[in-house]
Design a protein that fits this description.
This protein has 395 residues and is an alpha/beta fold. It is built from 15 helices and 13 strands. The chain has a 7-stranded mixed β-sheet, sandwiched between helices. Strands 1-2-11 form a 3-stranded mixed β-sheet. The chain has a 3-stranded antiparallel β-sheet with strand order 10-13-12, with helices on one face. Helix 2 packs across helix 12 and helix 4 runs parallel beside helix 12. Bound molecules: pyridoxal-5'-phosphate.
């Protein structure tokens, strides 16, 4: 290795010493309530497959049929030759589902943020960003070259104060927030953000990655949850979580989407979403439109596991959604907790810095509609056993 590359060895050794090195496990089969790792089945409490659609037979069938008609690859970026009629059909379905005028699909939720912020803001503009926003939002803000102003997490007084301080700045102002905060499971105060934005003439954008398929009527997302249709300028989202596949969404006015088709760099410079992804996402939207049974089951499961973990004495933070963090503190302790859960048949990854602030390392339990009550009891019992062994909870 070139001497100039040696810094990587040192950094990896430091990460291992501080318990920040991630041990990535390999799944040997599909996503589901249980997953196969190293030839054994483990209860899966760490995927974002909220509705269990990642391996749904209806989704698989639709994907196979679409591959037979369209092949697999889009062949190009959308603006050159990569737009297929199935891309447009999916966008129409998504816009209707979310109650927006129009939608654009991109390659991932991460790309959704990269599509929006640099297209709507630039040098001389200001982006007001919640301090717990997802990394893709942070990177998108940096790429935009706009000034970034962090406001304290969900603190509307701080947001208002920061906008007031910068009121005379001549550029555009944009407020961006996660809809559901991915590591804590709390919900953004979107109605208040919209009101503050109106007061200061700012654009509003919400990244609804963990709200789609979870919040609102039949999983229509945070805008629907708060009845804010037409009042949030940009909804960003992902089809990698509740939709069970992969792909990013941007929804909003017809003009916004027309503008982004021409300006958003992931749309202009990266090949389109693949055929199987489009087919799977289209099938997922149809399933969600047909019935809200899966969304209801997800919430029942989330409420049940959270109540059980609280009953055992765990700190589940301020979660208001099925995302259930079990806050442990130090990174190494969270990793030990996760390793012991694994020994007890439960796959629940430790989440440590830089994904969460130092000292707030956690094991995040993600339930899905695919889990049965017995599965959740099995998981809760393993948490209790390990919690007692590590003296995190009492007998
Ligand atoms: C809030 C938020 N935005 C964006 C993303 C990225 O989504 P994707 O995995 O589709 O790129 C995530 C995924 O973890 C997320 O939690």
């Amino acid at each position: 290795m070139a001497v100039a590359m040696k810094f990587m060895d040192e950094e990896l050794a430091r990460m291992k010493e501080e318990g920040l090195y991630g041990n990535i496990r390999t799944l040997e089969g599909p996503q589901g309530a249980w997953v196969r790792i190293g030839g054994k089945e483990y209860l899966n409490l760490c995927s974002n497959n909220y509705l269990g659609l990642a391996n749904d037979p209806r989704v698989r069938q639709r994907t196979k049929e679409t591959i037979d008609r369209y092949g697999v690859g889009p062949g190009a970026v959308r603006t050159i030759a990569g737009t297929m009629d199935i891309h447009l059909e999916l966008e129409r379905k998504l816009a209707k589902f979310k109650g927006a005028e129009a939608a654009l699909v991109v390659q991932s939720g991460f790309c959704g943020n990269l599509a929006v912020m640099p297209a709507l803001t630039g040098e001389g503009d200001l982006i007001f960003s919640d301090s717990l926003n997802h990394a893709s939002i942070i990177d998108a803000c940096r790429l935009s070259r706009a000034g970034s102003v962090r406001y304290e997490h969900s603190d509307m007084e701080d947001l208002r104060a920061k906008l007031r301080e910068n009121a005379s700045s001549p550029g555009r102002k944009l407020i961006i927030t996660d809809g559901v905060f991915s590591m804590d499971g709390d919900i953004a105060k979107l109605p208040e953000i919209v009101a503050v934005a109106q007061e200061f003439g700012a654009i509003t954008a919400v990244d609804d990655a963990h709200g789609e398929g979870v919040l609102g009527r039949g999983g229509r997302g945070i805008v629907d949850h708060f009845h804010l249709h037409g009042r949030v300028d940009v909804e960003i989202g992902t089809m990698s979580k509740a939709f069970g596949a992969v792909g990013g969404i941007v929804a909003g006015s017809a003009v916004l989407i027309d503008y982004l088709r021409q300006k958003a760099r992931p749309n202009l410079f990266s090949s389109a979403l693949t055929v199987p992804d489009i087919a799977a996402c289209a099938a997922a939207v149809e399933i969600m439109e047909e019935s809200d049974d899966l969304v209801k089951k997800l919430w029942r499961n989330g409420d049940y596991l959270k109540a059980e973990l609280k009953r055992f004495g765990f700190d589940t933070g301020g979660s208001e959604t099925p995302i259930t963090p079990v806050i442990i503190g130090e990174a190494q302790a969270a990793k030990d907790f996760s390793a012991k859960l694994f020994e007890n048949g439960v796959f629940a990854t430790a989440i440590v810095f830089p994904t969460v602030p130092k000292g707030t390392a956690r094991v995040r339990a993600m339930v899905s509609a695919a889990h049965s009550r017995q599965d959740l009891d099995f998981g809760a019992a393993a948490f209790a056993k390990v919690g007692k062994e590590m003296n995190l909870i009492s007998d």
